[in-house]
Every structure is written in structure tokens, then in C-alpha cells.
Write a structure and sequence with these properties.
Blueprint lengths: L1 E4 L5 H14 L17 H4 L6 E7 L2 E10 L7 E9 L8 H15 L4 E6 L4 H9 L3 E3 L13 E6 L2
Parallel strand pairs: 4-5
Antiparallel strand pairs: 1-2, 2-3, 3-4, 5-7, 6-7
């Protein structure tokens, strides 16, 4: 297994696996990451200096990933942990923990002071992991992510 930064050749494989996981998790296609146009071009989406996406590769096949990006239309000191989804064969193996650490380390190095995330009620294990990593629930969404179907909002102070 390899966790590495995304490259331009990962776009198609990553889009397929992300959408497969979203469907498996019964995430609404409207108001969620499923309809984000950036899913089809993740490499370009995370090319800026304060953005980075990590993919998980097993036997030369992309099986998930997660990224950090400035929160859209939000405080410039807040980043968002985005599109953290893994194929079912990877879940429960500590990979989410590892990739969150990589993302948060990058966020700190990029001078973000807080990290925001949105998730769904049925993603119980993800919520447990976020809480374990120091995220806390908040009462309203931040920024303008367009993910109106996500009713759970969390934030973590980084510095």
C-alpha cells in the first residue's frame, strides 16, 4: 500500500472510486460531493500552494484518498478536510487515521489555524475517527461548500 500526493494520471481512477463509495454509503447525489465538478479533475483542483490531495494506492490501483483545501468563501485561516473516502477493503485498517495526519500536517505547514469538515449521519465510523483526531461538532456550516445534504459539521483547532 502506498499513500502519495495525487498526480494528473489519477483523475479517472479516483473519480470512479470516489463515486462508487458515495453510492455505497447512500450519499445523496444532489447537495453532496457526488455532484462536485472537481471530482473529475482532482489533480487540478488541488494544485494550488495551500491545497493537497493524497491518494491510497494498492497494487497500482487507486482505492481512495483525502485532501486539504482552503474553505470556499470562508475565513482564509480555515481549511477543509475534503473527499475522504476509501474502498471497503481499506476500511478499519488505520488508513483513515494516517491520511488525516498527513492532511493535518500539511494544513499546519500551510498556516491554517483550523480545519473544517462536513459529513453524513450514517458515516458513524468516520465521525468517530474525526472525534478521536480532535474535531468537535458545531451547530452550523461554515463557508460555501455547496454540500447542503451534509448536516454534520465539525471543526478542529490546529494551532
Amino acid at each position: 500500500m502506498l499513500i502519495r500526493a495525487i498526480n494528473e494520471f489519477d483523475n479517472k481512477s479516483l473519480a470512479i472510486i470516489l463515486r462508487e463509495v458515495l453510492i455505497e454509503m447512500n450519499i445523496p447525489k444532489i447537495g453532496s460531493a457526488y455532484e462536485d465538478h472537481e471530482i473529475d479533475n482532482m489533480y487540478d483542483t488541488y494544485k494550488s500552494t495551500r491545497a493537497k490531495y493524497f491518494v491510497v494506492e494498492v497494487n497500482n490501483k487507486i482505492l481512495g484518498g483525502a485532501g486539504i483545501k482552503p474553505l470556499k468563501d470562508g475565513d482564509i485561516n480555515i481549511c477543509e478536510l475534503q473527499k475522504m473516502y476509501f474502498h471497503k477493503s481499506l476500511r478499519g485498517r488505520g488508513i483513515g487515521d494516517k491520511i488525516i495526519e498527513l492532511c493535518l500536517d500539511f494544513a499546519i505547514k500551510s498556516n491554517f489555524s483550523r480545519c473544517y469538515i462536513e459529513t453524513m449521519p450514517n458515516m458513524i465510523n468516520a465521525q468517530k475517527l474525526y472525534l478521536k483526531k480532535g474535531f468537535v461538532n458545531i451547530d452550523e456550516p461554515l463557508g460555501n461548500t455547496g454540500h447542503t445534504a451534509c448536516p454534520i459539521w465539525m471543526i478542529k483547532t490546529l494551532v
